[in-house]
Amino acid sequence: FEKYNIKKANDTAEDFVVQDNLLYFYLAEQLRFGVLDINTKEIIYVSEPIAVVERDDSFTQLKDLKVSENKVYILDSNHTLHIFEREE
Q1: The domain that contains 74 carries what CATH number?
Q2: Which superkingdom is the protein from (predicted)?
Q3: Domain range holding 56?
Q4: What is the rounded CA–CA span in Å between residue 8 and residue 78?
Q5: Cβ contact 50:28 at 8 Å
Q6: What is the β-pairing status of strands 42-46 and 16-19?
Q7: Phi and psi at residue 9, to the nearest 5°
Q8: What is the pTM of this model?
Q9: Residue 38 to residues 5, 23, 41, 55: CA-CA distances in angstroms?
Q10: CB distance 23 to 35 below 8 Å
Q11: How many domains does the chain have?
């Protein structure tokens, strides 16, 4: 976790998705998401911070994560859906 600047367990959101032996998680306040191989217990990917539109009246966080066969969908607190396509 230190390699990816995840300082403590509560940096990760409580929601996660498991698909094909991969656990997808997000770091709500850091605006990043990652993938953990549950067989090897290795983090295989952590994104760069997701570009969001900041608003003066609120602090943007990631709120929800969904995974399809080849895409990761992340909803932020401004109701913007961010879509990432997995590279094989």
Answers
A1: 2.40.10.480
A2: Bacteria
A3: 2-85
A4: 25
A5: no
A6: unpaired
A7: -60, -35
A8: 0.78
A9: 20, 6, 5, 37
A10: yes
A11: 1
CB neighbours of 16 closer than 8 A, spacing ≥ 6?
23, 24, 25, 26, 65
Tally the C-alpha atoms within 13 A of residue 57's C-alpha that lie toward its C-beta.
1
The β-bridge relationship of strands 32-37 and 16-19 is unpaired
Residues in the chain: 88
Please tell me the distance from the alpha carbon of residue 40 to that of residue 22, in angstroms, as a whole number: 10
DSSP-derived letter for residue 51 is P
CB 36 within 8 A of CB 29: no
